[in-house]
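--- STAGE predict ---
source: upstream dedup step, 1 unique chain passed
mode: sequence only
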Amino acid sequence: MAQTFAEDQYGKKIDRCLTDTLLKFGGGLAIGSVLSLLFFKRRAWPIIMGSGFGIGVAYNNCERSLNASK
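--- STAGE serialize ---
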């Protein structure tokens, strides 16, 4: 059986966090852009708000994932 080191597990968690952050940021950006185009007369705040929500959710998920191992 192959050994898994703690550093490898931590690295995989960080990789998952970065991937999750990029996906959630992109999703928030896309949703904010659509809302801005359709409902808010092409203003910037829905795009910024959607991106911020995406990063916030990803940060919360990463924090929970990294603190679960303690």
